[in-house]
Amino acid sequence: MSLLEGKNIVVMGVANDRSIAWAIAQSLASQGAKLVFTYENERVEERVRKLVNTIPDAVMLPCNVTVDEDIEKLAGSLKEHFGALHGIVHSIAFARTEELEGLFVNTSRDGFALAHDISAYSLVAVAQKLYPLMTEGGSIMTMTYLGAERAMKNYNVMGVAKAALEASVRYLANDLGQFNIRVNAISAGPIRTLAAKGIKDFNSILKTVEEKAPLRRTTETAEVGDTAMFLMSNLSRGITGEVIYVDSGYHIVGV
Ligand code: NAD
């Protein structure tokens, strides 16, 4: 049985083969989904193209989520390509490296605004322009982290942006439920990716998870990919506004 046969899904946030979005795309493709990929800019275009070319019939389109016209163009291209859209995978975040170390109290005004624009508002902007294409119902998902609810060393402004993202998931879910569109987040354990490189002392975070998480191991991108596939599929039809943890159980453990 292919769980995503006939589903048209846009995957936003592949930068390289370590990207969580890439693992998600592979899980979605394995269940028969038709995929469109978006990429941030020319800097990542060639790398993304090599990956996308390995998935039959997949296409790629540019979309910098800080640019409204890019998102509007994306909506037009998806309408042309797919007609109806069934799924959106939002796996995008950014904060300046200097805001991901030291004290949160030193966060600058523009660093705060930039992190929130790319990491939280972009979900709202994308949902706003693309939900009208979800004429047969749909599923929207994004990626978050435990730093949204706990003050974690060096995660700083990104934690605050993730809190805004998780609240946005609930508000969007409440708005779009009437159109049979669900909105959820996956809270993944730490995974070594390009984005994670910006976080100071990332290795020690991985080590703590290995020691303390109930499953005594770190999270693999494929585990996130398969949960995303569940969220895109009809199997999760009763779930919306939720944050699902794929973190080897780390978030349940006391100090
Ligand atoms: P990644 O660097 O592979 O992915 C981040 C993506 O964001 C990249 O593809 C980048 O091009 C894109 N992006 C940044 N600014 C953009 C913009 N203006 N327009 C369009 N795209 C833009 O790293 P990742 O770890 O796969 O991150 C994906 C998501 O998962 C992020 O939301 C991240 O916060 C979240 N997450 C990561 C971890 C982890 O430990 N790696 C844990 C929990 C959640």
From TrEMBL:
SUPFAM superfamilies: NAD(P)-binding Rossmann-fold domains. It is an enzyme of class 1 (oxidoreductase). It comes from the Bacteria. The keyword Cell membrane does not apply. It catalyses: a 2,3-saturated acyl-[ACP] + NAD(+) = a (2E)-enoyl-[ACP] + NADH + H(+). InterPro entries: Enoyl-ACP_Rdtase_NADH (IPR014358), NAD(P)-bd_dom_sf (IPR036291), SDR_fam (IPR002347). GO terms for biological process: fatty acid biosynthetic process. Gene3D superfamilies: Enoyl acyl carrier protein reductase (1.10.8.400), NAD(P)-binding Rossmann-like Domain (3.40.50.720). One of its GO terms (molecular function) is enoyl-[acyl-carrier-protein] reductase (NADH) activity. Pathway: Lipid metabolism; fatty acid biosynthesis. Keywords: Fatty acid biosynthesis, Fatty acid metabolism, Lipid biosynthesis, Lipid metabolism, NAD, Oxidoreductase. The keyword Lipid biosynthesis applies. Its EC number is 1.3.1.9. NCBIfam families: PRK08594.1 (NF006369). PANTHER family: ENOYL-[ACYL-CARRIER-PROTEIN] REDUCTASE (PTHR43159), ENOYL-[ACYL-CARRIER-PROTEIN] REDUCTASE [NADH], CHLOROPLASTIC (PTHR43159:SF2). Belongs to the short-chain dehydrogenases/reductases (SDR) family. FabI subfamily. This is Enoyl-[acyl-carrier-protein] reductase [NADH]. It comes from Paenibacillus naphthalenovorans.
